[in-house]
Design brief:
Strand order of the largest sheet: 1-2-3-8-7
Structural class: mainly beta
Distance between the termini: 19 Å
Shape: globular
Radius of gyration: 17 Å
Number of domains: 1
Order of helices and strands: EEEEHEEHEEEE
Length: about 250
């Protein structure tokens, strides 16, 4: 199953921090040209052990594609999953240095979490400037018949899978692909600065074949062998993640 992959460029309006019950940082954005509203759902917790995400933040981001991104119209732009364009592949390009990713702690209460905090801090900068733009790479959903469940705009519409989308555990293998990785970038025109956040699940392998499937089991980032119950052939976790996929946008 390939994602409806692309990049959403829009102006941020408000955000909601993720909680243990709803482990996504939610960002309400609008395309000021068309007036279309979208929600960006960024995972701050995995449904597959180990639950903490790995992340890499670059606060002064420079990359050859940024001029092209800046020239995109507001709204969702579908991207072909291939090299040489705007599509992102963490493992087949140098856009993010894999070794610099580190696990994120997520507290049960969902209040003092590093990932919520680092997203929130950077989104606040963008909220303060109406000319700032958020660029969310991932899987587009909608428009839906019902209103958005978090920000209540109509119709429901948005983008999720704002994380690596290859090397998945067996339960999410169907979502694997190359050149379809998610990312969140913010452009702040006042200081002419780009910021980028790259996320991956610890259950995702950094070794993938040309279909994006894991060619090995991931290595625990802490060097220990425990906690990888979700990785064995029978799914390990007893199937609870079949009902609560980590890519769900709700």
């Amino acid at each position: 199953m390939s994602l409806n992959y692309g990049v959403l460029k829009a102006q941020p309006i408000e955000s909601l921090e993720g909680t243990a019950h709803s482990p996504h940082y939610q960002i309400h954005v609008v395309d000021p040209q068309s007036g279309t509203h979208y929600r960006i759902a960024v995972n701050v917790l995995s449904q597959v052990q180990p639950y903490n995400l790995q992340y890499h933040v670059i606060d002064d981001f420079k990359y050859p594609t940024l001029a092209t991104l800046q020239g995109l119209p507001d709204g969702f732009t579908k991207l072909e999953s291939k090299p040489g364009g705007l599509a992102i592949d963490f493992l087949r390009s140098d856009i993010v240095d894999e070794d610099q990713m580190r696990p994120v702690l997520f507290t049960d209460t969902g209040s003092e979490t590093q990932l919520n905090d680092l997203l929130h801090e950077r989104i606040q900068d963008a909220l303060a400037d109406s000319n700032a733009r958020i660029y969310a790479f991932g899987d587009h959903w909608g428009p839906q018949s019902q209103p958005d469940q978090y920000f209540h705009f109509q119709p429901g519409n948005g983008i999720h899978d704002i994380h690596m989308n290859q090397g998945n555990d067996p339960g999410h293998r169907s979502q694997d692909g190359v050149w379809q990785d998610g990312a969140l970038m913010v452009f702040l025109p006042a200081t002419n600065r780009w910021m980028a956040v790259f996320l991956k699940f610890q259950s995702q392998s950094v070794h993938t074949d040309n279909a994006g499937h894991a060619t090995d089991s991931p290595t625990p980032s802490n060097g220990g062998g425990g906690g990888y119950g979700g990785q064995d052939d029978n799914g390990g976790q007893g199937g609870h993640h079949h009902h609560h996929h980590h890519h769900s946008h709700s």
